[in-house]
Amino acid sequence: MANYILQHKKHFNFKTFVQNALQEDVGDGDHSALATIPANKKGKCHLLVKENGILAGVEAAKEIFLF
Q1: pTM above the 0.85 mark?
Q2: Could you give the number of structural domains in the chain?
Q3: Taking a C-beta distance cutoff of 8 angstroms, is the pair 61, 2 a contact?
Q4: Is residue 46 assigned to a domain?
Q5: What are phi and psi for residue 24, nearest 5 degrees?
């Protein structure tokens, strides 16, 4: 992902994109989540992979969590 970001930073600012996305949800909250998930609930997930494949977005997720 870092290479992709470096190659495309002239046309796309990944950090600004992530900041805008977070601001949208953090501002007054994610309306879909607020309407459907009780405030006191917490969740977790388990990824069950049954076949070989490609998991897209891992490198982007790593970059996002570095902000």
Answers
A1: no
A2: 1
A3: no
A4: no
A5: -60, -45
**What one-letter code names the amino acid at 59?**
E
Q: What is the mean pLDDT of residues 48-54?
A: 90
Q: Is residue 60 a part of any domain in this protein? A: yes
Q: Of residues 13 and 8, which shows the higher confidence score? A: 13
Q: Assess if residue 35 is contained within a domain.
A: no
Instruction: Give 18-37 pLDDT, tens digit per residue.
Output: 888 888 777 777 788 889 98
User: Are the C-beta atoms of 18 and 64 separated by less than 8 Å?
Assistant: yes
Domain ranges, residue 8? 1-28+54-67
Mean pLDDT along residues 45-59: 86
For residues 18 and 25, what is the distance between their CA atoms, to the nearest angstrom? 11
Helices of type H across the chain: 2-8, 14-26, 31-36, 58-66
